[in-house]
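Subgroup meeting minutes
Present: P.N., E.W., G.H.
Scribe: E.W.

1. P.N. recapped why we're keeping a running log of single-chain structure predictions: easier to compare across weeks, and new members can see raw inputs and outputs side by side.
2. G.H. added today's entry (185 aa).
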Amino acid sequence: MIAEDGTQLGIVGIQEALQRAEAAELDLVEVAPDADPPVCKIFDHKKVLYEKKKKLKDSKKKASVIHLKEIKLRVAIDQHDRSFKLKRAREFLEKGDKIKFTIVFRGREITRPELGHKLIRIIREELADIGEIEQEPTKMGRQINMIMGRRKDWQPSQKGKDEQKPDDHQAEAGAEEQEEARQSN
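Output recorded in log:
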């Protein structure tokens, strides 16, 4: 038996061990049931469970969650639509999410796989500054799939922080000048 302060008390009967635990207002816990004789320890079991639960909660707080976002594209996508989807992909990468690009072939488009590979190449070039390929493009049936994640060496740009918004006074002065120009015409 082991006491609450960690000292070994030697071999003690069950009744005596229970009495000591009750006197100390603590729990008697069997630590090594397979040992001969079994080893028991006196300690506050609820306190240990509480600390364990608290550590688990803290570890969950520190863990970063990465989501996998999917962006579907067609081979015959317009340049504007493609740039809009790549803009969204850039936002996802900046947040730290991974992106699964799915290029879908419909109908007879499947006979032109080079168009899908061309689209993959465009995606790589557009997002090369922020993203890196984690899973190379693979063809699965009528789709080409590729997973991209944020680069390890990527740093957020200072673009938004450096630009300063004009003061309200300056904006009012500009509005007054425009009104005067309109009245003179």
